[in-house]
Amino acid sequence: LQWATTRLQKGARKPQPQMPRTPTANGIIERDETPMEKEIALLHGADFEFSHIFYFCRKGFEAIVEDEVTQRFSSEELLSWNLLTRTNVNFHYISLRLTVVWVIGVIVRYCFLLPLRFTLAAIGITSMIVGTTAVGQLPNSSVKNYLSEVVHLTCSRILVRALSGTIHYHNKENRPRKGGICVANHTSPIDAIILTNDGCYAMVGQVHGGLMGVIQRATVKACPHVWFERSEIKDRHLVTKRLREHVADKSKLPILIFPEGTCINNTSVMMFKKGSFEIGGTIYPVAIKYDPQFGDAFWNSSKYNIVSYLLRIMTSWAIVCNVWYLPPMVRKEDEDAVQFANRVRSAIARQGGLTELPWDGGLKRAKVKDTFKEEQQKNYSKMLVRNGSVG
Known about the structure:
The protein is about 45% helix and about 10% strand. With about 400 residues, it is of the alpha/beta class. The chain has a domain at about 95-365. It is globular and about 75 Å long. This is GPAT3 acyltransferase.
């Protein structure tokens, strides 16, 4: 609401207590990109001294105060209030009129939209299980493949309606084709539904239990999805072999993979794991960008379980997003898998207007690898040895 945003902006213009300011180069703190050797040399000398620890302490404080990684795993801040209070700043009383509108919105979203969406979701999931199970009983043929695609598309579109999804697909001539690999940035578990609303894909993932397991067992009968047992998914060579066999069959649906391996908050694209780019075949990049004004699609799995997340999604006003199909890409002769992955990631980031970060999304839960620490230690020891030999 424009008038609500204006009201917030007026409040922000009120005189605030003046705090002493210091010039900042980029962000909260001023970062100095001077190499380690020069910075330590400025402290005292080339030989080891206890004062050198101040350099590492300062770099540690910089990482804690303004960390590039962890801020990508929390919901992005909105410029205006969207009657959802889904921003990082909690709801504050602004006016009686705005509060009344917000209360009416809560009643509409929870008492009208939520039951309707839950009903549509139940219909979509039930139809998926029943439809794929029935199609799975047919012998392998072009008729079975056609009916499988019809069932998958129909059920996916019902599920998108359950989210009040408004999706804009761009450059449809670049849609992934059979025998290829579709890779996309990852914001939410519903990314797969967003893409299957416009085309069929072979999913890749771990075998689950419960309702998800029932869906997996039903769908794999009608379509050659690639599901792995928990013990198998750790076997990198087995995973690569099965994916290569799938891609080699040009009659099978394109594989859908999210190379980041975790959900990022719709502002950035983090490191793509190289495994998806070692398989071979044509890569079809896809950029997905959500509009957070109507609902926050990002799943912060550290804060919400899947049930709480789905409740938040289904009580939003709508899920609005843009999907760009990028031109297909193949690995160059002089490229390794990592370079190819970085090139694909850069293309997705440019198209989606996302920030490109070189960090592994696994840092969301895992500790920093010892190899990263050892690399800094080696650089420091090399500097001391080199300076000592010169002296």
